[in-house]
Amino acid sequence: MRIHNLYEDEDGESHFRDIEVEFTQERNFSKYSATLPVTGIIFRETSGDYDLDWHNAPRRQYIINLDAGAKLTASDGESRVIGAGEIILVEDIGGKGHLSQSVGGQLRHSIFVAID
Fold first, then answer.
1. Which residue range forms the structural domain that includes residue 65?
2. Model's pTM, two decimal places?
3. Strand arrangement of the beta sheet that strand 98-102 belongs to
4. Which of 15, 63, 86, 96 is in the most buried spot, having the most CB atoms within 10 Å?
5. Contacts with 99 (C-beta within 8 Å, 6 or more apart), sequence order
6. CATH number of the domain to which 105 belongs
7. How confident is residue 37, by pLDDT bands cut at 50, 70 and 90?
8. Does 116 have pLDDT greater than 90?
9. Can you tell me the mean pLDDT for 24-49?
10. Is residue 61 classed exposed, middle or buried when 0-12, 13-18 and 19+ CB atoms within 10 A define those classes?
11. Distance, CA of 25 to CA of 66 (rounded, Å)
């Protein structure tokens, strides 16, 4: 299972990388990761016409897109579409930040899982 990760380096530049979930247990036809600590959960509905200028993540958090994607652009110029059913860990809480844009004009429902 892959998680997109948007992070900032020591110069404040944001970049993407991929994180593979490490499974630590297997039982009943399923694999499980370790339990991760979280501090809250937020449900969000975002209009299909958003196009946000440079901004930082408000906190370290996982974003789980439920029914539509979002295009994110790191300050190093790389863009990724994080599709429905995909997860991104945003950690660029300082530095230059990133751009966020709707994909295909679709209303998007997502879940934010705060970890700080």
1. 2-26+35-114
2. 0.94
3. 51-55, 98-102, 70-74, 79-82
4. 63
5. 52, 53, 54, 55, 71, 72, 73
6. 2.60.120.10
7. very high
8. no
9. 96
10. buried
11. 26
